[in-house]
Design brief:
- The chain is an alpha/beta fold.
- The chain folds into two domains: 1-57, 2,3-Dihydroxybiphenyl 1,2-Dioxygenase, domain 1; 62-128, 2,3-Dihydroxybiphenyl 1,2-Dioxygenase, domain 1, CATH 3.10.180.10.
- It is built from two helices and eight strands, in the order βαββββαβββ.
- The strands form two sheets. A four-stranded mixed β-sheet has the order 1-4-3-2, with helices on one face.
């Protein structure tokens, strides 16, 4: 299989609340929008991928196995910014044994999001 593009699909219990969280609170850039009304779709840029918020879930119960991973340049600066916006912080920034600096937050439906900084000397930054 040769994948040309990909995106994560979220079906939130309250699409408007989720659009406000991803678009305004987190400040993700809109790639495209489609449809009309409260259940319209909005697709956000996620670095090398996309996040689509569309449709509506019957309840506020996220898939327990679903997690998002967002890499940022400075996780501690993002932490301070999100504290001011009353985002649910599940865990403050911590340097993990594998060298990444990670913080965990939750979206309005409880989807867990890892906000990650890759330090300059980390192997993920190595480009042969």
């Amino acid at each position: 299989m040769h994948v040309l593009s990909s995106r994560i699909l979220l079906r939130p219990a309250d699409p408007e609340r989720s659009r406000a969280f991803y678009g305004e609170t987190l400040g993700l850039t809109v790639y495209r929008e489609f449809g009309t009304g409260p259940d319209r779709g909005t697709v956000y840029f996620l670095g090398g991928g996309y996040l689509e918020v569309s449709g509506r879930a019957p309840t506020r119960e996220p898939a327990p196995q679903l997690r998002l991973w967002l890499q940022v340049a400075d996780v501690r600066a993002v932490y301070a910014e999100l504290l001011d916006k009353a985002v649910e912080i599940l865990r403050e920034p911590v340097t993990e044994p594998w060298g990444l600096v990670e913080m965990w937050i939750a979206d309005p439906d409880g989807v867990e999001i890892a906000v990650v900084e890759v330090p300059e000397n980390h192997p993920l930054r190595y480009r042969p």
